[in-house]
Amino acid sequence: MTQVAAAPPLFGRRYQTGKMLGQGGMGSVYEALDRLTGKTIALKRVTGLTENQNFSSPDDSLNFRLALAREFKVLASLRHPNIISVLDYGFDEQRQPYITMEIVDNAANFVEAARAQLPDQQINLLIQLLQALAYLHRRGILHHDLKPSNVLVTKGEHVKVLDFGLAKNLDEDGSFSGESVDPNARTLLATRTR
Fold first, then answer.
1. 96-131 pLDDT, tens per residue?
2. Catalytic residue among 34, 88, 145, 182
3. CATH assignment, 108-192
4. Coil, strand or helix at 102
């Protein structure tokens, strides 16, 4: 098992990190205090994308930063009650990217939450999830990592879709933008659009 380095206590001189909330293939998520606004937020330190990157040339580093800025712009533009709000991004002192987003307190993953509900309430949760996915698809965004741990349900039975690390945009012609898309996904999409 790989050991994950502890998060620096301060990111961008603005975010004071606290306890770790979760960890996945793309990085670790921490509770953090936004010292500018005084609000508690979630801060995701993105490590999965950059561990194998070689930024030996300034061009590679610049291209990566530009790609991250484009992705952040798309994520930050998403406004839907069932999609996590992305707030800010930057790079820490080790040149690792991070993003900040709204924090979802006391939430259960989608399956755990649905098990505890009556059928009518389960249907309501599913409708909220489908509304979020329909919104994303209208915007030309495919999530690519939709699983119970990336769909949270608050105590108030409000669904939140999160973790867009693998999300991809569809170009106007229906092809994927970006280079890291699974070739099988392209084939599947091509057969579905015929």
1. 888 999 999 889 999 999 999 999 999 999 999 999
2. 145
3. 1.10.510.10
4. coil
